[in-house]
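Q: Structure for this?
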Amino acid sequence: MKLAAVDWIFIVWYFILSIGIGLYYSKKAGKSISEYFLSGRSLPWWLLGTSMVATTFSSDTPLAVTGIVIKDGVSGNWFWWNFMLGSALTVLFFAHLWRRAEVVTEVEFIDIRYSGRPARFLRGFKALYLGIPISCITFGWVTLAMVKIIQIIFGTSGVAALAICLGLTIFYTTLSGLWGVVATDMLLFGVAMLGSIILSVVSVEKAGGIGAMVEAVKALGAGTGKDYLSVFPPLGQALPLAFFVALFVQWWAVYYPGAEPGGGGWSAQRMLAGKDARHAVKGTLWFTIAHYVIRPWPWILTALAALVLFPGITGAAPGEMEAAYPRMIAFLPKGIMGLVVASLFAAFMSTIESIVNLSGSFLLNDFYRPFIRKNASEKHYVAASRVLVIFVSLLGAGFSYVLGSVKMGWQLVMELSAGIGLVLLLRWYWWRVNAWSEITALSASAATAVYLKIFPDNALVRGLGRGLEKVGFRIDAWGVGILLIVAVTTVAWIAVTFLTKPDDEVKLLAFYRKVRPGGFWGPIARLNGGAYKLQAAPFLGWGLAVLMILFLLLGLGKVIFMSFGAGAAYLAVGGLAAFLLSKVIAKIDWEGR
Amino acid sequence: MRKEYRPMALGFWGIGVPLVVFAVFFCKTPAQRLTVSLSAAVFFLVGTLIYRAKQ
């Protein structure tokens, strides 16, 4: 593809703006660790929520969704849409608790919640685990996707462009900390969405317009026996296990960056950085709406256009299906092409900057400060933070060479953490969960995943598969694997919880009084002189949030495909759910005093 | 206006301006022109909202 001078001018202008914004905050960020990693806990909901969704919108995301739609149709997106249930859960049950906890990172939570040597071990281990291998895998898969995009757009010479982009991003992120990250995220998300919307408009035009494209996709589907446009998968005579697992298990059981059960990683960091609990809640709600309702439709439209414009793509390898997205850029007129190319850089930068800042926070706050150098000055810790951010960036860039494919990266992370979600949820609401519970969950989940990798066709898998087929499921290896990992992990950590001593009462009481969770805190609540009640309103709010997201998502899809009557009906239901949800959220006392 | 929000507002306006130029000179079809023009309007609006945000 050949970019014209006007394309380059826009791309350079975009970089000047985004880097300028990032660098503006370097002085403010350098004042303290709280400023560097949490923006002084002063973020309003609209900034922290947009930063969350900007981080989850990376260069690989539209490619992944394109591949999903070309292979399985729109309904294939339930692979990640199911996480909306978990996101809504985080909004109503966890966002305000994170903010009340007032820790710097999700790993520091361990220090205020658990006691004894197991807690110290868990904190140090998780700091290194999340700060190095997990961040390297995420960095690697995001960078690999960007390399693929650049090679399609620029040819191999474009890798130098990527190196410059990466270098500039790391530069301003190192200097300006989370302030630079969230402020640039605001613009980067806007530019990234702009590019995806424009690409979808041009792609659909090229495919003959929305009506002609829909008819062509239907005809293609009739020929292959697939309904590409259906939002829900065909159930047929047997329920597909993968859909069942996605809808009922994955969202609460699997720890996945950006969709951690109960919040974690960069989403927890943004909640912790909110002005107060209410801003943390509203910001997470805005993220949920932007992430599930607004983001995906432009990519889905582009993917459907690719089905029409690239005959035979349904028989291509997964990598070729994903590459259809950047290939569509060739159809753009000059000027607009530069805009869309800039948008892909924006998506990439918004994720990379968050990953390195977050990893730096784990390594500084949860490893260096508690274990290596205690009681140093804030100036020292800020300087150390900057060194650590550069360190993880270099590691991540290096790992990009080793990682085989984008999909391999996703799979690795999912499989290692497939069963740990439940303990992460219950640790807030059940006093009995201790550090050994989490250690066991992590170990059992990883061990089972590795066992399944080495012995994929073992007796347990065969037995479980046969049993599920008997009750009417159409089984697949992934679904069976996830169920097995979750079952083994859950049994293991619950057993260990009861076999080990509870945490120290003084620690638990301090946590209970600080965070004020409801739930099952029996003996600690008695020590407190009374229990904090788990209110009923969040349960209602959760149901309304899920209804709202689902109906707005479906309604937007109906309108885009020109079913205006159905679209209006769905949007009306979604709108009503949103209105009722706003009333519920307004009534809840998020500080819980 | 909060000082720390100023760069973000400038960033949005800074993208909005070239979008107007693209809409006028580089869009080939009415759909493209409408999309880019609306996008420019959104960027100007968001920039202004950020500029005027009190919290």
